[in-house]
């Protein structure tokens, strides 16, 4: 019995010691960072150093960790985080490491809450048989250890975390010098020898360690082929599988608008933070604070805004949603108004030709909209908006997690324009009245880390009705029973889509993705006595396979796509039907070097009406230095014009449509074909001792064929015909983003356009395009208090130079326009108050300069006469507008 009691006592003591030894400590440390990439880097480093859990918060700049105090030294953990590039309350990151972080990760280092201890002064301590050797990944480890054994070592163990190799060798047979020289010969710098440049450059992409870091400091790089399959998101696109999560986090937590340093093309990531700087009730209003895109002013007839990029209409820009074709065909004039601003999680804007994997229609660039999805925690948000012009909106968005692998988004929107505004007393509404109901549901499945499978499903529906025209027009009375001029637009649109992808086991660089989408678009409209009815059914499918040749220096994507468009249009008494079927094949190769990336792609599309089209595209990026990037691009695109849908702003006029056909299969016209060439230089530097970015770019678009809409032949006609001669658009832009003081962000830009075409009457400038435009945006936010409360202020000034106007000289003098419009300026501003993380109120103003166009409607008193024209809009119609909004999340 005594023996048993003694045994129990000993067991109890041992068990108690075991429990105390396993006690988990929870602690919080201050760590500096900026974006989602920082979050990943900080948390990953903490876990690799021994933390059982780690969560870094960008707003509080705090890292919360749990660790076994018996095994983990918190100072060692913070030291490792500093070595990875992040200042904290114990250690400061080496300047060289900080400077080599991606641009989005450059946090403000001053004022600092840090001690003077630096990570550089606390390099890993090594024993006599350990030596510093640079490297990155498992391939490096294998190469280093093999080289050491080849040089005579009995054993060798290289540690990527400490950047040291531990050697066991017989001094009578070899030496440390001989072993380290052999390691350098195979490509790895060490404390004794430096590898030759030629050998280093020929290492696989995953092994290209950072040679500028101090010895013993780990290079913070991600290498797909060596690490476990990363968490990926096929909601982005199969061809973005290896970086989609990173981009989404960047948009969510990083800068308001970030110019990507990684992308080969000139790509801007626009976050929800940027969208909150303005009213942003829909996608067309999401670019008011962006200098790259020009937003045309609302047309009094349709009430819509159109975008222009590189000096050309938005029809030449590929507009996608979830990287699926979205705003095209009959949806072109109104599609931007059908995507609510509060639904947008982020926007990727690329200038110039985009990747061939996304299709053939991109000529001037691509704008992709990502819808809200579940991030770190469930969130439901409610938004209310109203302005003094009688426009009211409400939004409800909810993202939630269903299970470990499933999450969902429910998106609801409603708006109504109730007031009949006629501020210029011309008898016509300044904006249509009407309402819109919009709903979407997104469902995501993510099991990429285990089974390698991910899938995204979406469905959306929108119903939009607008009525404009004379203020006395009664929409409830038949047009034949009244003498007033009216405009009615009734749109129904339905989308359903799915994207599914698979990442191959043990090959995270290899994946296959398949996306499908069906779209139904119906428009019933009238403009005075003219009817326009349009119906479009579209099916789109795209299959993409991605892998490598040898290593990740040589990547490729290949696949096949299919596009089916069925159009049925009725204009007046004429019916226009056509069906387009376009199977296509594509291949894209990416070559990555030490300082450059080359993306070369081509696709062949077998269009049943536009014949076989070959579309090559080339993008090249060269990092002159970590802060200086040169980009070059060239590519071809083609599209089929939808002349009725794309020119509805001219339907409210006396102009008759005339088509001068040339035997083509679409409205008796040939497809539009153009080449786009571009060059840009991106430079980061310090201004006022803070980060600044200067970008200068030039793009030229040359049309091989184009469908011209000629407004100059006669004020009574709009004539469509194919280009016979030259048509080009030159675009130059320079933009400076800088932070002159804490929390104050400034953006300055200047744009010059030269856009001309050979019309039937000779070479002329394209109308409604200002040659010179200036842009200024300023944003300021106060510091957050303990409750998360702060103020935000934003203002945007746009200077619009004179524009070439259509020739109306055949009209009587009072119904003519000058050859050029006057220059003018518009000013938008907004102030918002975040009371805490959940409640925000904002107050803003648009067109605060009050500038409005004189006589926006020609001969408005006689809308059924010969001279009536409501399409000559080149400046604001609405005077200064004030709006108020409320955001609540929970």
Please describe what this structure looks like.
The protein is mostly beta strands and 890 residues long. 10% of the residues lie in helices and 45% in strands. It has nine helices and 41 strands. The strands form six sheets. It has a 22-stranded antiparallel beta barrel. A six-stranded mixed beta sheet has the order 7-8-14-15-12-13. A three-stranded antiparallel beta sheet has the order 1-3-2, with helices on one face. α2 crosses α3. The radius of gyration is 31 Å and the shape is globular.
Keywords:
890 residues; mainly beta; 22-stranded antiparallel beta barrel; six-stranded mixed sheet; 10% helix; 45% strand; disordered N terminus
Distance between the termini: 62 Å
Rough shape? globular
Count all strands and give the number. Answer: 41
Largest sheet: 22 strands, antiparallel, barrel
Signal peptide: 1-21
Pfam family, one: HMA
InterPro entries: Beta-barrel_TonB, Beta-barrel_TonB_sf, HMA_dom, HMA_dom_sf
Subcellular location: Cell outer membrane
Brief summary:
The protein is mainly beta and 890 residues long. The protein contains 9 helices and 41 strands.
Annotate the secondary structure layout.
Blueprint: H1 2-21, E1 24-30, H2 36-48, E2 53-57, E3 62-68, H3 74-83, H4 95-99, E4 130-132, H5 138-150, E5 155-159, E6 164-168, H6 176-185, H7 197-201, H8 244-253, E7 257-259, E8 266-271, H9 272-275, E9 294-295, E10 307-309, E11 312-313, E12 317-321, E13 324-325, E14 344-351, E15 365-371, E16 379-387, E17 391-401, E18 406-417, E19 433-447, E20 453-469, E21 486-503, E22 511-527, E23 530-549, E24 551-571, E25 574-592, E26 596-607, E27 611-625, E28 628-639, E29 656-660, E30 672-687, E31 690-705, E32 707-710, E33 717-722, E34 727-741, E35 744-759, E36 762-765, E37 772-781, E38 790-800, E39 824-834, E40 839-846, E41 881-889
Parallel strand pairs: 12-15, 29-33
Antiparallel strand pairs: 1-3, 2-3, 4-6, 5-6, 7-8, 8-14, 9-10, 10-11, 12-13, 14-15, 16-17, 16-41, 17-18, 18-19, 19-20, 20-21, 21-22, 22-23, 23-24, 24-25, 25-26, 26-27, 27-28, 28-30, 30-31, 31-34, 32-33, 34-35, 35-36, 35-37, 37-38, 38-39, 39-40, 40-41
Domain HMA: 24-89
Signal peptide: 1-21
Pfam family, one: HMA
């Amino acid at each position: 019995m005594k023996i048993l009691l003694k045994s129990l006592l000993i067991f109890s003591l041992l068990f108690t010691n075991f429990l105390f030894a396993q006690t988990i400590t929870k602690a919080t440390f201050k760590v500096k960072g900026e974006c989602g990439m920082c979050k990943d880097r900080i948390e990953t480093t903490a876990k690799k150093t021994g933390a059982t859990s780690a969560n870094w918060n960008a707003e509080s700049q705090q890292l919360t960790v749990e660790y076994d105090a018996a095994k983990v030294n918190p100072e060692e953990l913070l030291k490792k985080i500093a070595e990875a590039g992040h200042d904290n309350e114990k250690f400061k990151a080496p300047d060289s490491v900080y400077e080599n972080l991606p641009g989005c990760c450059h946090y403000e280092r001053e004022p600092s809450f840090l001690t003077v201890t630096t990570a550089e002064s606390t390099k890993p301590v090594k024993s006599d048989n350990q030596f510093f050797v640079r490297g990155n990944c498992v391939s490096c480890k294998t190469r280093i250890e093999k080289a050491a054994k080849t040089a005579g070592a009995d054993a060798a163990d290289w540690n990527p975390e400490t950047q040291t190799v531990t050697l066991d060798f017989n001094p009578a047979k070899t030496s440390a010098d001989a072993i380290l020289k052999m390691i350098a010969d195979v490509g790895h710098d060490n404390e004794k020898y430096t590898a030759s440049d030629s050998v280093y450059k020929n290492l696989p992409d995953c092994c290209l360690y950072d040679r500028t870091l101090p010895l013993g400091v780990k290079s913070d790089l991600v290498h797909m082929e060596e690490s476990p399959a990363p968490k990926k998101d096929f909601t982005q696109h199969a061809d973005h599988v290896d970086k989609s999560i990173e981009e989404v986090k960047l948009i969510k937590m990083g800068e308001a608008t970030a110019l990507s340093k990684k992308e080969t093309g000139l790509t801007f990531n626009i976050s929800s933070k940027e969208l909150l700087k303005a009213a942003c009730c829909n996608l067309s209003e999401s670019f008011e604070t962006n200098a790259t895109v020009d937003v045309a002013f609302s047309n009094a007839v349709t009430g819509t805004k159109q975008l222009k990029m590189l000096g050309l209409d938005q029809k030449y820009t590929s507009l996608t949603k979830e990287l699926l074709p979205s705003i095209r065909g009959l949806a072109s004039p109104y599609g931007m108004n059908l995507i609510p601003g509060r639904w947008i999680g982020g926007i990727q804007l690329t200038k110039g030709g985009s990747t061939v994997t996304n299709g053939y229609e991109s000529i001037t660039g691509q704008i992709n909209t990502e819808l809200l999805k579940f991030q770190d925690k469930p969130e439901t948000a409610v938004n209310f908006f109203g302005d003094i012009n009688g426009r009211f909106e409400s939004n409800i968005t909810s993202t939630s997690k269903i299970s470990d692998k499933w999450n969902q988004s429910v998106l609801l929107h409603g708006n109504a324009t109730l007031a009949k505004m006629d501020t210029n007393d011309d008898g016509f509404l300044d904006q249509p009245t009407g309402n819109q109901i919009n709903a979407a549901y997104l469902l995501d499945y993510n099991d990429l880390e285990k089974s390698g499978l991910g899938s995204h499903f979406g469905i959306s529906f929108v119903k939009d009705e607008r009525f404009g025209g004379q203020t006395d027009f009664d929409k409830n009375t038949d047009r034949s029973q009244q003498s007033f001029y009216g405009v009615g637009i009734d749109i129904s649109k339905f989308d359903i889509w799915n994207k599914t992808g698979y990442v191959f086991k043990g090959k995270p660089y290899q994946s296959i993705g398949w996306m499908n989408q069906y779209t139904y678009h119906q428009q019933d409209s009238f403009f005075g006595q003219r009817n326009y009815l349009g119906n479009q059914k579209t099916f789109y499918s795209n299959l993409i396979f991605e892998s490598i040749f040898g290593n990740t220096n040589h990547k490729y994507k290949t696949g096949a796509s299919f596009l089916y468009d069925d159009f049925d249009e009725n204009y007046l008494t004429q019916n226009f039907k056509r069906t387009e079927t376009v199977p296509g094949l594509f291949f894209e190769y990416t070559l990555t070097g030490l300082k450059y990336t080359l993306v070369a792609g081509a696709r062949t599309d077998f269009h049943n009406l536009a014949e076989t089209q070959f579309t090559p595209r080339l993008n090249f990026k060269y990092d002159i230095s970590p802060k200086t990037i040169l980009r070059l691009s060239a590519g071809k695109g083609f599209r089929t014009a939808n002349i009725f849908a794309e020119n509805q702003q001219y339907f409210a006029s006396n102009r008759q449509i005339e088509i001068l056909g040339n035997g083509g299969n679409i409205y008796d016209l040939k497809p539009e074909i153009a080449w786009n060439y571009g060059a840009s230089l991106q430079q980061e530097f310090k201004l006022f001792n803070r980060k600044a970015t200067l970008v200068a770019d030039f793009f030229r678009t040359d049309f091989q064929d184009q469908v011209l809409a000629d407004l100059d032949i006669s004020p009574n006609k709009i004539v469509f015909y194919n280009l016979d001669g030259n048509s080009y658009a030159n675009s130059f832009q320079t933009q400076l983003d800088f932070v002159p003081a804490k929390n104050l962000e400034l953006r300055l830009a200047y744009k010059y356009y030269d856009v001309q075409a050979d019309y039937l009457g000779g070479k002329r400038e394209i109308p409604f395009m200002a040659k010179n435009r200036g842009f200024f945006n300023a944003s300021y936010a106060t510091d957050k208090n303990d409750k998360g409360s702060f103020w935000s202020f934003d203002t945007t000034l746009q200077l619009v130079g004179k524009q070439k106007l259509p020739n109306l000289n055949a009209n009587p003098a009072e119904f003519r326009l000058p050859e050029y419009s006057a220059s003018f300026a518009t000013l938008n501003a907004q102030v918002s108050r975040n009371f805490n993380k959940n409640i925000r109120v904002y107050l803003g103003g648009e067109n605060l300069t009050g500038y409005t166009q004189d006589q926006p409607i020609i001969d408005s008193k006689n809308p059924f006469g010969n001279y009536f024209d409501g399409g000559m809009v080149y400046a604001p119609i609405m005077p200064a507008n004030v709006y108020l909004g409320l955001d609540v999340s929970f």
